[in-house]
């Protein structure tokens, strides 16, 4: 009887355990919460947007290629945008290039522009602004560490409409365009040629025929000299023969005169 009672209790406990509701796990509770429902809705929205994007690109390939080109170009411009350290490095490099030249052959335009930028840099008045796809370098009236009243008072700061006048350079696609344009022909001093006539101050690029002729002459200058000894000896013998003939003729003419 005792064993029957134990078996009955065990079967009753198993039946109650099977009938009792199963407790949910932590992941299921998080999944069914408000945050889980919102995240699932967000993922489904993004999934639907991506699907529509792929379908639209497949239906309109030209439009999709144009959009991709613009996005790729914008990313390339943002990635290759120069910063302030690159401007300072380019400025020091240009200054060293001009320092290697004599003051008599430097371009006054290039030298003046670089010297003004170096002066502003030494005074701490150069500023850099990043605009996403490009960078700007401009100058301010005072150093940021200056403790003058004019430098610290916001009411005395320069107005925003004067900002274009203070821009010194534009950085785009890894280059500083104004600095590079100012450094063109930096080793040519145009002041040396201002006293020449107008047609001598302007030089035109050589034509194709002139370039080919110069290249041909340059190649011929490297060839060894070919001296034809036999022809020179023949010329010398001819000259000697002529001289002998003249002497003989003169000697024959003398007795006739006598």
From TrEMBL:
Protein name: Translocase of inner mitochondrial membrane 29
Biased composition (Basic and acidic residues): 235-258
Protein's organism: Seriola lalandi dorsalis
Disordered: region residues: 233-258
GO cellular component: TIM22 mitochondrial import inner membrane insertion complex
Matches recorded under InterPro entries: TIMM29
PANTHER family assigned to the protein according to its UniProt record, in alphabetical order: MITOCHONDRIAL IMPORT INNER MEMBRANE TRANSLOCASE SUBUNIT TIM29 (PTHR21435)
GO biological process: protein insertion into mitochondrial inner membrane
């Amino acid at each position: 009887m005792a064993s029957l009672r134990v078996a009955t209790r065990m079967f009753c406990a198993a039946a109650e355990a099977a009938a009792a509701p199963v407790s949910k796990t932590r992941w299921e509770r998080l999944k069914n919460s408000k945050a889980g429902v919102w995240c699932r809705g967000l993922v489904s929205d993004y999934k639907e947007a991506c699907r529509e994007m792929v379908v639209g690109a497949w239906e309109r390939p030209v439009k999709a290629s144009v959009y991709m080109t613009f996005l790729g170009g914008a990313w390339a411009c943002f990635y290759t945008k120069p910063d302030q350290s690159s401007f300072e490095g380019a400025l020091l490099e240009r200054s060293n290039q001009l320092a290697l030249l004599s003051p008599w052959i430097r371009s006054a335009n290039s030298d003046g522009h670089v010297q003004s930028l170096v002066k502003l840099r030494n005074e701490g008045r150069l500023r850099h602004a990043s605009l996403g796809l490009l960078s700007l370098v401009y100058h301010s009236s005072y150093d940021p560490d200056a403790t003058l009243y004019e430098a610290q008072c916001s009411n005395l700061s320069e107005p925003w409409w004067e900002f274009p006048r203070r821009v010194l350079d534009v950085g785009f696609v890894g280059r500083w365009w104004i600095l590079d344009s100012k450094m063109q022909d930096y080793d040519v001093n145009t002041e040396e040629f201002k006293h020449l006539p107008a047609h001598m101050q302007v030089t035109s690029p050589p034509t194709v025929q002139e370039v080919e002729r110069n290249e041909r002459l340059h190649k011929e200058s490297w060839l060894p000299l070919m001296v034809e000894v036999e022809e020179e000896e023949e010329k010398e013998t001819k000259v000697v023969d002529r001289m002998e003939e003249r002497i003989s003729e003169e000697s024959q003419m003398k007795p006739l005169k006598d």
